[in-house]
């Protein structure tokens, strides 16, 4: 029965509402409060509608498995210190999207009066796609920034061992008639999943993705990650940005840093305490928001209409592809990749659910 449903889902667009209900049901069965389950599902399903399946609902099953000893599904994040334009939150090992949404909401509230606000987080874990939280600020006519440190996977220039995480960050900027500009990137030159895919296929990789265990560039992915380590994007520039994120999200918050940060997705009893950083800038405190949005619209259109290189049909702004995918997903449903559906099949087995609930 499950195999036939899985096969059917491979060619079926799943309504976002069905996926949302399925995820909420799993979390409720796992013992989460309904409000927290709804917040977490909103983050993950929105990410799927953007087409960023690596960080969407696929993450739910491994996140639930953390509840055995590394995450407290009933924990309540706590503001441990604050001022007019800043705050620190101890997540108390709650599920990260719950913590992160609360943190950005607090940054937005403080920025309404302070003009700009920083909220740092410790005692957290893997929060998914940075873009969701940055865009929360854009929805309030603010500029949003979100970032997190992560377990070491990336060498520094001249090094040969993992020192920094992929340390992603995102910014979101509101526009007027146009969609918000949203950038969400890791600071490694490439996602580790792409190197692992090359390993499985037996294909070579570009020589600027990974260095071997002697720190030399390699095109051989066959021994990654046992040997070899990712490089930062743009060499020393990406290294510098990743270090900034480590300082703002880890050092300043009191979270774990560098090799203290443990990988979240594999079984491990060691505690997780990743750090996050959220910044909200209240545009209207600096410039009338309507004027700013008009200026942003003009910037977007000038970039979009720039002379195109040979063979280029269209120039995109950061986030534009994702907004268009979301439009399709909300209208027609989400065509979930096989690896995502396999995760949901496992989730259904874990909590005695019916995978057919995803069918329209």
Strand content: 5-15%
By helix and strand content, what is the structural category? alpha+beta
Largest beta sheet, briefly?
Answer: 7 strands, mixed
Distance between the termini: 17 Å
CATH architect. name of the largest domain: 2-Layer Sandwich
Overall strand count? 10
Provide the CATH superfamily of the largest domain.
Malate/L-lactate/L-sulpholactate dehydrogenase, NADPH binding domain
- Gyration radius, rounded: 21 Å
Number of folding domains? Answer: 3
Proportion in helices: 25-40%
- The top-level CATH class of the largest domain is Alpha Beta
Along the chain, the helix and strand elements come as HHHHEEHEHEEEHEEEHEHHH
Q: On the 0-100 scale, what is the average pLDDT?
A: 93
> Given the structure, what is the number of helices?
11
